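Hey team,

Filing this mostly as a record. A colleague (T.K.) asked me to run one chain through the structure pipeline before their review meeting, and I want the input and output archived in the tracker in case anyone asks later how it was produced. No errors, nothing strange. Just documentation.

Input sequence:
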Amino acid sequence: MKQHKKALVVWVGAVLVLLAGALLAGSSGRTESVQETMRDAVLHEVNQVGLFGLREVNPGMISALLVTAFLLLAAACIRLFAIPRFRYRPGRLQMVLEEAVGLFDGMARGGSPHRCGFLGAYIFAAGAYIFVGTLFELLGVQAVTVHGHPITLPAPLSDVNAAIALGTLSYLVILSGGIAGNGVKGVGKTLKEFSLPISMSFRLFGALLSGLLVTELVYYYVNLSYVLPVLVGVLFTLLHALIQTYVLTMLVSMYYGEVSEQSAPKGKKKKVNAEIN
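Output structure:
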């Protein structure tokens, strides 16, 4: 009981200290309005970064290149150094990798049991990119804009161009499943879901952007910039990383299974209906 009281006193004291610091900090002294700050967080019209001195790009492009390079390097290291050492009794790394592979493989088999080889590999890669790319913003990697201002690189998918690219790629994968399973008929079945790439793209973009804007809004005001940004940023980032990874991979598996499932010939359909009747 005494320990609980001591812990409560410590927490109350910490909250009072942080509140006092926030009140004494005063205004932020920003030269731009909160509307301009949040607009640039979406459109990146001002804070652009030079790409190897060739052209100006959105900071999300730099984030995408860094995340892609990290994933490729990690995959190469795991293949060369970790997988050859796998044993019948798995270690920690082996257990984590097997659980991750089993999760996406099970999702692919559940959504498309008749054709799941390539689907499992794709949703694993897409899920890893979304998860790692979303957590990337927690690292706080700094870059310098073309105007000489330091900025923190955002998550790659908080850029609408990256979200549209991943949504379109997922739609093309679904289309390939329809062609592989049903030929020209598969194209027709896939094209019926013409809004699918738009919905997947803007679902990713909207979810990740909401977390970015909330964090930007909290950081904008110095009165709120004590401990609260850490809680908001970490919670929003982890939540979006898990949810968006699951949602996109689940949707791709489901639609891939629908369009790649071979349709029964009309003669067999009539026979089956006659037997049922």
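Quick notes for T.K.: The chain has ten helices and four strands. The two ends are 72 Å apart (CA to CA).
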